[in-house]
UniProtKB/TrEMBL annotation, chains A, B:
Residue ranges constituting the Peptidase M24 domain according to the UniProt record: 140-338
Highest taxon of source: Archaea
Enzyme class: hydrolase
Domain Creatinase N-terminal: 7-132
A Pfam family per the record: Creatinase_N
PROSITE patterns, sorted: PROLINE_PEPTIDASE
Family: Belongs to the peptidase M24B family.
GO molecular function, one term: metal ion binding
Enzyme Commission no: 3.4.-.-
InterPro entries: Creatin/AminoP/Spt16_N, Creatinase/aminopeptidase-like, Creatinase_N, Pept_M24, Peptidase_M24B, Peptidase_M24B_aminopep-P_CS
Organism of provenance: Methanobrevibacter curvatus
Protein name listed in UniProt: Putative peptidase
Hydrolase among keywords: yes
Length: 352, 352
């Protein structure tokens, strides 16, 4: 949960936009404002006196974790009726008259039920607030990076490769090390791609024996906050040649990170280098993304993201070159925006 | 992917509802109709000649898995423009004039962009089709159940408890066994709850040593299809007394499964038994849910679900009693609706 000061600032922004409250349905948004992580349907009405509607099944869990007023969720009509006729402790009517902000991610069939009764407007207040991390959030992400990095070193993947481990079992052992080292779980399904499959940026680990090269894209959660790192172990001269280009794009992009720059400018720095070497068409994804409670959050380090970098954003920088049917190389780190970009963790970008 | 016959029947139903096509954004819906499992943004326009818009990053993967025509996704305006001005091989105009069906789960901000250009209507065609499993789907779910069950027996959780394993490490070892036994991954984060925490239906495994009783709710995926099972190991007389009640509700609910019944009637069978014993308020969730590519699919075995059971639906039956601050007991199996309900897998409902 963010601190009370930040919560007050969010509620103030809701009011400044001319609305009484905001409907939260996204699990991570509810966790962000309340510390309660729903495991079943839940709604938070974020307003002067916020209230969370949660399932009977989750009530004990919610009581143990959140300080926000709880009500048992029965149905959407019940939620609507309740927030339309609410009174505070002093008997003052405290309902939602001016309308309700909603998240962009809200499912159509839920929007459709609320829109009968409220003036509705989509708002990115939560996404924007979550972009700027508090000191506590930065510390958690940094710890997650350190745990993830130590776990990869503990895994000794080159030895696993010699021992004919499958991609699946190597990724599974990495997960065990993450837990032993203090992480709670992977922040996404670990990618261990080897051989030709490294040219698929989102390959799934298979039961086949590990081949060469080896691309690992992995992360863990520490107190619900995510890390995200990629490393590639190269073997041939051609692979090493491509690796040097990716490394130059990675280093230059990280050096270009500072408050005031646009995210699309950071993407351009990495993309221009790779394009100059003739591999522009082989850099088939964005240069990076924000992360926090979710593994992908705003902003994007992409061609089209005009967001301006601010202090205490945390983004990944992950240039890659993918040669279909041959191999792919990616180097990725998690970067904290201070006066310049600071890589979280101390794992060298090239490990073999 | 479902078979071609089923795909044709879905497209026919779209036309019967007076629309030219349906916009699919849900990853599992796209996988269901195409066999391609998106790892990044993707849209499928399901129509006479379906087309999938996929990211550059996913293109190689999509080409390898799907037979549906692929286009590279650039932006939503590009998708809109493309499907508004499409011609088939013979030059016949083949665009979406009559409007576009959407999924209930579609994010508001995507709906909002399409609604400018199309008459939009929410449809549950895909949800309804996915409720009725093909023989291939049933076989995959059955195999997933068998792998999951064997893995729990291999784990020997009572020994792990004696050896002072933590809930987290026991659940992790169960995951490894699932992979060794032929599953690809867990179908959801394994719940191993012990001691008082068994009263939280969705407890997360902690690093604390395992206590008594032990509740395990776990499943695996086999060829992308999910299993879902729960077992509770009881120790005290009081726990055994509650277990007998849950078992009666479980057995009677399964016996009541047959085509033609309403889902809410099945829920009532289990709920009435537990209520008769005085624990109605302690059965704090629904009796079950559908499953398939997703761990939770339609229909729900709940108070409010009026859906009528049909042959080849697959649902869970999972009554439970939760005594806050004391303990909880749940017994769950995956049930295939034939002329009567057939439990998938052969694991005894009570294991100690």
């Amino acid at each position: 949960m963010v601190n009370e000061k930040k919560l007050d600032s969010i509620i103030q922004k809701i009011h400044e936009s001319g609305y009484d409250g905001m409907l939260l349905y996204d699990i991570k948004n509810i966790q962000y404002v309340s510390n309660y992580k729903p495991t079943s349907i839940a709604f938070c009405i974020l307003k002067e006196n916020p209230v969370i509607f949660t399932s009977k099944m989750d009530m004990e869990n919610a009581k143990n974790t959140s300080e926000i007023t709880l009500k048992e969720y029965e149905s959407i009509p019940q939620v609507i009726k309740s927030i339309k006729s609410e009174h505070d402790k002093n008997g003052t009517k405290n309902d939602i008259n001016s309308g309700l902000l909603i998240e962009g991610s809200l499912a159509f069939n839920i929007y459709d039920k609320f829109k009968q009764d409220f003036k509705i407007k989509q708002s990115d207040i939560l996404e924007k607030e979550r972009m700027i991390k508090t000191k506590e959030e930065v510390d958690k992400i940094k710890t997650a990076c350190n745990i993830a990095h130590k776990s990869l070193l503990d895994l000794d993947i080159l030895k696993k490769q010699e021992e004919s481990f499958s991609e699946l079992m190597a990724s599974y052992e990495l997960g065990m090390l993450i837990r032993e080292n203090g992480g709670s779980e992977e922040s996404f399904n670990t990618i261990i791609a080897t051989g030709k499959k490294t040219s698929l940026p989102h390959s799934s680990p298979s039961k086949e024996k590990m081949k060469q090269p080896i691309l690992v894209d992995w992360g863990c959660k520490y107190m619900d906050y995510c890390s995200d790192t990629s490393r590639t172990y190269t073997y041939t001269e051609k692979e090493a040649e491509i690796e040097v280009i990716v490394l130059e794009a990675y280093n230059t992009a990280i050096k270009s990170v500072k408050p005031g720059k646009k995210l699309c400018e950071i993407d351009k720095v990495a993309r221009d280098i790779i394009t100059d070497y003739g591999y522009g068409d082989n850099f088939i994804h964005s240069t990076g993304h924000g992360l926090g409670l979710d593994i992908h959050e705003k902003p994007n380090v992409s061609k089209n993201d005009q967001t301006i970098l601010e202090k205490d954003m945390i983004i990944t920088i992950e240039p890659g070159i993918y040669l279909e049917g041959k191999f792919g190389i990616r180097i990725e780190d998690t970067v904290h925006v201070q006066n310049k970009g600071k890589v979280l963790g101390k794992l060298k970008p090239i490990l073999n």
